[in-house]
Amino acid sequence: MVPAGKLRIDELSAEERAVYATLKPEHIPEHVAIIMDGNGRWAGRRSLKRFLGHQQGANSVQLVTETASRIGLPWLTLYAFSLENNLRRPRAEVNFLMRLLKSYLESNLQRMMDNNVRMKYIGRTHELPAEVQEKMRWAEEATARNTGTTLTLALNYGGRSELVDAFRGLAAEIKQKHLSPERITEEDIHRHLYTAQMPDPDLLIRTSGEMRLSNYLLWQIAYTEIFVTERLWPDFRGIHLLEAIADFQRRERRYGGLSESVGEVEENPERIRIAAG
Ligand code: FPP
Predict the structure, then answer these.
(1) Taking 80 as the threshold, does the pLDDT of residue 1 lie above it?
(2) Spatial contact of 214 and 253, defined as CB atoms under 8 Å apart
(3) Residue 150 pairs with which residues in a beta bridge?
(4) Which residue, judged by its Cα, is nearest atom 22 of ligand 1?
């Protein structure tokens, strides 16, 4: 795998460098996806308002993105705002998250440029407030020529609604081209996902200890390794990303096949006696 952009290991902190030194650089994942959870709990534990947890969470987004760019991680996809957040959270919190996103993009654009980060979005972003969409487009266009990490923010995103949108697109194509449904392949579905241009995530990180997928990238994570940490998102830093990658590198991915440590497989099933029950 060729890392995205230039490696900037010298820009890692001393602690990060120590963890990076334990990694196999040729096995850095291509795509890391993160469910950023625990902003509210982080604030609650400090008797602060939830908003302050989100604000600290935005700070973590920037720091983790910069570490990702220094180690040449090609794709980083963050669950920043789900369809369910949009529908089920109090309006005041949703409005705050929208304002935070706008000011985050405004105030971090220069840092994105300095770190060669390209910005993208997935989700039903056309349903977000017009001024937020405008700021999103502005940041996407400004960073479009960057060649390092692609930071994708999932905004107003839901995995099932992504599949609905993909199937609608595919159905329209089938109708228009008079194709036979029997010929639909997995690749056809992939082409209609929001993530059509990206590889599937190798590693999914979830903060705050919850063992749930929360409707995130449901199609794409079929063979993704999952890493759950108790750490709350506002406390998550680049070093924790590196630790998660170290854990990932100790896993053996089999994609439904057999472990390399399994010895020779008996080729003649007739010779295998099944123990009588
Ligand atoms: C979960 O915390 C987190 C979110 C609602 C989405 C993530 C949002 C951010 C990191 C802040 C803004 C991001 C950007 C890109 C500017 P929670 O409120 O569900 O936490 P809780 O489960 O502890 O209540």
Answers:
(1) no
(2) no
(3) 75, 118
(4) 38
